[in-house]
Design goal:
Blueprint: H1 10-13, H2 21-29, H3 37-61, H4 69-73
Helix pairs in contact: 2-3
Length: about 80
């Protein structure tokens, strides 16, 4: 049995790139501010560090709340009446 299929180089039919898809997306949608993959990766790194720092701030300091001054002077405020 002989197959008459055209010979296609493997590079032509499967195109792989070393850059990440999100880096390409950032370069395409940055409005020209990010020109190459190195800048896109740096922008992603800075964004991820900022998100982590904001998350840590809210986790560590977001639940600490000081009661109002009136509640400190009269601790029965907010409690059900007897």
């Amino acid at each position: 049995m002989i197959f008459n299929e055209p010979k296609i180089p493997s590079e032509a039919h499967l195109e792989y790139s070393n850059s990440a898809r999100i880096a390409k997306w950032i370069m395409r949608n940055s409005g020209g501010a990010i020109k190459d993959e190195k800048q896109a990766n740096l922008a992603l790194f800075i964004f991820s560090v900022a998100v982590i720092l904001v998350s840590l701030y809210f986790i560590l300091f977001g639940s600490i709340s000081k009661p109002p001054d009136e509640a400190l002077r009269n601790p029965t405020i907010g409690l059900p009446e007897k």
